Recover the amino acids of this structure.
C-alpha cells in the first residue's frame, strides 16, 4: 500500500511540474498559422497569426499549445511557435526560473525541439550511454522466442526466392 501511495504522490508532482513548465511561457510565431478554438486540425479558426507575432503559451496538449494573443486565446500547433528566452519571462518563482532557464532559440527537426543549430553541429556521441543501451538489446535466442510466442514468421533465407 505504501508503495502505491508513494507512486501516486510522485505522479502528482510530475504532473504539476509538467503543467508549470509551459505555463505563461513567452513565445513567437515562427510561421503563419491558424489560432484554433480547440487543439484539433478541423476545429474552427479564431484568427490567423503571422510569423514574428508574440504570443504567450499557457498549456501544452499533445502537439498543440494553448496560446494567448493580445486579443484571443486559442490553440496553435507547437511547430509554429518558438519559445523565447527566460529573460522575457516575468516568472519570479525559483521553479519558473528553473524551467525557463533552458529555453532559448530552438531548432525544429521533425518535431524535436530544444537544440540550437550550434548545439547540433557540436554534438558528440556518448559512448558510455550507447554501451548502456546495448544492455537492453535482446539476444538472438530472446528474439526468436518472442517471434515464436507472437506467431511471427521468420524471413526466408532460401536463395531460390532471390531470383537464382
Amino acid at each position: 500500500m505504501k508503495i502505491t501511495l508513494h507512486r501516486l504522490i510522485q505522479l502528482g508532482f510530475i504532473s504539476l511540474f509538467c503543467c508549470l513548465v509551459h505555463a505563461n511561457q513567452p513565445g513567437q510565431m515562427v510561421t503563419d498559422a491558424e489560432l484554433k478554438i480547440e487543439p484539433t486540425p478541423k476545429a474552427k479558426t479564431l484568427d490567423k497569426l503571422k510569423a514574428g507575432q508574440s504570443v504567450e503559451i499557457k498549456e501544452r496538449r499533445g502537439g498543440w499549445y494553448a496560446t494567448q494573443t493580445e486579443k484571443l486565446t486559442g490553440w496553435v500547433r507547437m511547430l509554429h511557435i518558438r519559445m523565447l528566452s527566460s529573460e522575457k519571462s516575468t516568472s519570479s518563482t525559483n521553479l519558473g526560473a528553473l524551467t525557463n532557464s533552458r529555453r532559448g532559440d530552438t531548432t525544429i527537426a521533425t518535431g524535436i525541439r530544444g537544440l540550437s543549430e550550434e548545439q547540433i553541429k557540436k554534438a558528440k556521441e556518448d559512448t558510455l550511454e550507447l554501451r548502456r543501451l546495448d544492455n537492453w538489446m535482446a539476444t538472438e535466442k530472446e528474439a526468436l522466442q518472442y517471434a515464436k510466442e507472437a506467431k511471427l514468421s521468420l524471413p526466408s533465407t532460401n536463395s531460390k526466392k532471390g531470383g537464382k
Remarks:
- Helices lie at 2-22, 94-100, 117-122, 127-134, 140-149.
- The chain is about 30% helix and 25% strand.
- The chain has two domains: 2-122, 127-154.
